[in-house]
Write a structure and sequence with these properties.
The complex is a heterodimer of chains A (117) and B (768). Helix content of chain A is 62%, strand content 0%. Chain A has one domain. Chain A contains 3 helices and no strands. Chain A has 117 residues and is mostly helical. By secondary structure, chain B is mainly α. Chain B is 73% helix and 2% strand. Chain B contains 33 helices and 2 strands. Chain B has helices at residues 2-23, 32-42, 45-49, 74-97, 104-123, 127-145, 152-183, 188-193, 195-200, 204-218, 227-231, 236-245, 250-262, 266-286, 293-314, 317-348, 364-378, 384-397, 403-425, 445-463, 466-479, 497-515, 520-527, 534-556, 561-583, 598-616, 620-640, 644-665, 677-703, 709-722, 727-735, 737-759, 764-767, and strands at residues 54-61, 66-72. Chain B has a two-stranded antiparallel sheet. The longest helix of chain B has 32 residues, at 152-183. Chain B starts with a helix and ends with a helix. The chains are: A mainly alpha (117), B mainly alpha (768). Chain A: Keywords: Cell membrane, Membrane, Transmembrane, Transmembrane helix. Chain A: The chain crosses the membrane at residues 6-21, 28-49, 75-95.
Chain lengths: 117, 768
């Protein structure tokens, strides 16, 4: 499973980057989301995946009696998911607003302030 | 002594609050500052002449060996007296010269900083603090040259001067650091003790070149001389003070200071003689082609600086005596001539030497000052200049085989200097007074007294050279590493070869003065050579550098996000990829992996299809939907592999994102295919390489052993300390509670942003 997952993470990264390199703003956001998902999965995988043993201490005990999935990467990823949602929602609304003002979705027509001449 | 140096800085600081008082009648009071310092330093004369050296050390940055060490010896004393003495006259002169000027307080502020910094340069024993004061003089000079900041030429000259002297300052710093490294000290007097160590060091050549670079840029030696004529854009008091009497001599001072520790080698002497000789002859010839009084004086100043460097290069005791005397001679007559020029400019409004004549009828005391200065400049007895010139010839004549050649060069220079001095000090006052100047009148006494004092001093010392002999010249020569105690300076040496040479100099000089007429035609003639002059070369280098930077910036900072991303990823891929190729084991331990089940494979398959569909679909709605499927598949993976919290979060967030997207989508333009095929293939290749790199990286990491103490800590303490059984939750809300709090704050800000973006209604007026 780990092997396949690693390939899939590579696929997520590759497609995320490819979408980020497009000129359309919408594609840029989609690429960002894909890349974020890839990163989350990468952290998850590198923390070693364990099947069917969630990091929850059994009802009657104070400690883990058995092996358990690593809770640290999970906590990290949870934070990452929520934060990236903040970013995505803001970016999506910003696209809408930007389109209303400049009437384009093309990044190349939005770079005038950043251009050095 | 530290207080004496700081006085100037404090004075300038006070002007920030007291500036408006100084602009009025109180301007003259500021002259008390240099006067007080002059008297303060004057009282050391007795101690210095008896051979004492006064040192004071204050700790500054002891850990780096940078102390504020100050030494007052013969060399320093000459310079401090010049700085404060001429400073006093210039401060007084300015009170009338710039009377009522809008920024008079600023002007005094810069002058005060300059004076303090200059004192710091000549008194510092620590080479690092010397460097700092050195740079401060460059900076204050920059502000003073650009004082008329509304004129483009002024600003340009200021920048040019700053860049040349600033580069020199950096060379000085480099040289200082190497010296400190070799000798293990930054104290100049302690370096003297390690003279052999420095001379034998393999870095000796580099040190000498760096110190020369600093001295030659500051003291306007060929080929760095060109900033000085430009610096004449400054108000005349500045030209008098900085660009003739003091600052430009800082380079000479540096050479004098380092002669005992670095000098007396083939490299040192030959370079100084060559550069000095080229500079003095080159600049002296240039005076023939100028019609602006300040231009003439600027070139004759460069020539005088050349003579000084040349004399230091000769390295004999006679040459050092001549150098010390000539510094004083030059300061006295050149400051006078500049001040006189300032008065002429002030009263007639022109500095064109071809137009000026007959002014003695309206400006008699000024004419007397000019005449006396010209006499001293020309080296006509009984002036101090006569002694100076004799000593120069004596030094060159007694210099080995090349003595005759060097004497000839010195004579040529002196002849032309005489011409320049007469042109500036006598020509404007003789002849017929043109009608246009009849209305010119005497300026306030504060303006004409200072040049008169200096000019009279130039004659008095000539008649009574013993005034300076014991008190200044002897200790200075001793400080340069020669026995100075038996030096005798006399006006009359009897009839000898040197007197003959003097007579020739004066005769030929007068001949040129009477026969040669400066004209604009000549000035234009020499302008044709500007293209190959060092100035144009430096300027075109500067221009090319600017253009080059512009091109590079344009290339890197091109405004296209995708290029920035591509470059970053490309570097990442190359660097990481290279290291991976070197160190990868390429062994994958399949046994350690968990086994596959059918539904897992199906999930991954769905996900892969979702990703590819997102990328390649033409429909935007489909892309968003496929992206949602990918998110759901990830959430399933979380479920399979023991992460229920993640699965829930991913599920809800994914859903929300898709909904938000769809809500906004219908307002957006069509999903256009903007890039061409070539760009897509290029980006595709980069993306695939990047993705594969991540895969390889992940597999490599999986092959490494893993151990985390943090995990154990959380697992053991989740219930014991935090009373929670879901460890992920406990980490988030308890152990890392503050982080989560911050996260909530971030989300709140994002939410406010989203809300205000949705609510924002731009009217047509605000939109632009």
């Amino acid at each position: 499973m780990e092997f396949l997952l690693a390939i899939l993470i590579g696929l997520l990264y590759a497609s995320g980057l490819y979408m980020m390199l497009r000129r359309s703003l919408v594609k840029l956001i989609i690429g960002l989301i894909l890349l974020g998902n890839g990163a989350n999965l990468l952290i998850f995988l590198l923390g070693r995946i364990t099947k069917g043993k969630p990091p929850i201490i059994p009802e009657e005990s104070k400690f883990f009696l058995d092996a358990y999935a690593d809770p640290v990467p999970q906590a990290l990823i949870l934070t990452a998911i929520v934060i990236s949602f903040g970013l995505q929602s803001f970016a999506i609304v910003l696209i809408k607003r930007a389109y209303k003002v400049v009437k384009t979705d093309d990044l190349d027509q939005m770079n005038s302030t950043d251009e050095f001449s | 002594m530290l207080t004496a140096i700081l006085t100037g800085f404090i004075f300038s600081l006070l002007l920030v609050v007291a500036g408006k008082y100084i602009k009025g009648k109180a301007a003259i009071l500021s002259a008390l500052v240099p006067l007080g310092l002059f008297i303060y330093f004057l009282q050391f004369t007795r101690q210095i002449s008896s051979g004492e050296i006064i040192t004071k050390t204050y700790e500054w940055v002891p850990s780096l060996g940078v102390n504020l060490g100050f030494t007052l010896d013969g060399i320093s004393l000459i310079f401090t007296l010049m700085i404060t003495g001429i400073g006093f006259l210039v401060f007084a002169y300015t009170a009338t010269y710039l009377k009522g000027h809008e920024y008079l307080d600023r002007f005094y502020g810069y002058l005060g900083i300059f004076m303090a910094a200059m004192l710091g340069v000549v008194l510092s024993d620590n080479i690092i603090s010397l460097f700092i004061f050195w740079e401060l003089t460059s900076i204050s000079s920059f502000f003073l040259i650009g004082f008329n900041n509304k004129e483009k030429a002024s600003r340009k000259s200021a920048v040019l001067a700053l860049s040349i002297t600033g580069i020199g300052g950096l060379l000085l710093l480099a040289g200082a650091l190497i010296l400190g490294n070799i000798t293990g000290t930054y104290s100049i007097s302690e370096m003297l003790l390690s003279k052999d160590l420095i001379a034998e060091s393999s870095h000796y050549i580099i040190i000498v070149i760096l110190i020369f670079g600093a001295a030659f840029t500051k003291s306007a030696q060929f080929p760095f001389h060109f900033w000085l004529p430009g610096a004449m854009k400054a108000p005349t008091p500045v030209s008098t003070y900085l660009h003739s009497a003091t600052m430009v001599k800082a380079g000479v001072y540096l050479l004098m200071r380092f002669t005992p520790s670095l000098g007396n080698t083939e490299l040192w002497n030959t370079t100084l003689i060559t550069v000095g000789a080229i500079t003095m002859v080159y600049a002296a010839i240039h005076t023939l082609f100028r019609t602006d009084l300040k231009g003439i004086l600027a070139y004759s100043t460069i020539a005088a600086l050349g003579i000084l460097v040349f004399l230091i290069g000769l390295g004999t005791r006679e040459a050092f005596v001549a150098a010390c005397v000539f510094i004083l001679v030059h300061a006295l007559y050149k400051a006078t001539l500049f001040l006189v020029t300032g008065i002429i400019d002030h009263e007639t409004g022109t500095r064109d030497v071809t137009r000026l004549s007959g002014l003695r009828k309206v400006l008699l005391p000024v004419a007397i000052a000019g005449f006396l200065a010209a006499i001293s400049n020309a080296g006509i007895p009984p002036s101090f200049g006569f002694i100076g010139k004799d000593l120069i010839y004596e030094a060159t004549l007694h210099f080995g085989n090349t003595g005759v050649l060097l004497t000839a060069l010195a004579i040529i220079t002196n002849i032309l200097l005489l011409y320049a001095g007469f042109l500036a000090g006598i020509k404007p006052f003789t002849g017929k007074l043109p009608q246009s100047f009849e209305k010119a009148h005497m300026p306030g006494f504060l303006m004409w007294i200072p040049p008169l004092i200096l000019a009279i001093l130039g004659i008095t010392i000539g008649v009574f050279p013993s005034i300076v002999q014991d008190s200044l010249i002897q200790p200075a020569v001793t400080a340069m590493g020669q026995n100075g105690s038996e030096i005798q300076i006399k006006l009359w040496h009897g009839f000898n070869l040197i007197l003959g040479l003097s007579a020739i100099t004066i005769g030929v000089g007068l001949l040129i003065y009477f026969l040669f007429k400066p004209s604009l035609k000549l000035e234009k003639g020499i302008a044709k050579f500007d293209k190959i002059a060092p100035k144009s070369i430096v300027e075109s280098i500067g221009y090319g550098f600017g253009q080059g930077s512009k091109k590079v910036t344009g290339l890197i900072q091109n405004g296209y996000l995708r290029y920035y991303v591509s470059v970053i990823i490309l570097f990442l891929v190359l660097l990481t990829g290279y290291t991976l190729l070197q160190n990868t084991k390429y062994v994958i331990d399949y046994d350690s992996f968990s086994e596959l089940t059918v539904y897992e494979v199906l999930t991954l398959l769905v996900m892969a299809v979702g990703i590819l569909y997102t990328v390649f679909t033409r429909s935007r709605l489909a892309a968003v939907a496929a992206m949602g499927v990918v998110g759901l598949a990830i959430s399933l993976i979380f479920v399979y592999y023991s992460a229920p919290d993640l699965a829930m979060t991913q599920f809800s967030i994914d859903t929300l994102t898709v909904i938000l997207f769809v809500l906004v989508l219908y307002r957006l333009p069509k999903y256009l295919k903007l890039s061409d095929r070539k760009a897509r293939i290029k980006d595709g290749i980069l993306s695939v390489v990047f993705g594969s790199l991540i895969t390889v990286l992940a597999l490599e990491v999986l092959g490494e052993p893993q151990g985390s103490q943090i995990t154990d800590f959380y697992a053991e303490n989740a219930y014991v300390l935090a009373k929670g059984k879901n460890v992920v939750n406990v980490i988030l809300v308890d152990f890392r509670g503050i982080d989560t709090f911050m996260e909530i704050a971030v989300l709140t800000i994002a939410a406010i942003g989203v809300f205000s973006l949705l609510k924002l209604r731009l009217t047509k007026k605000n939109r632009k």
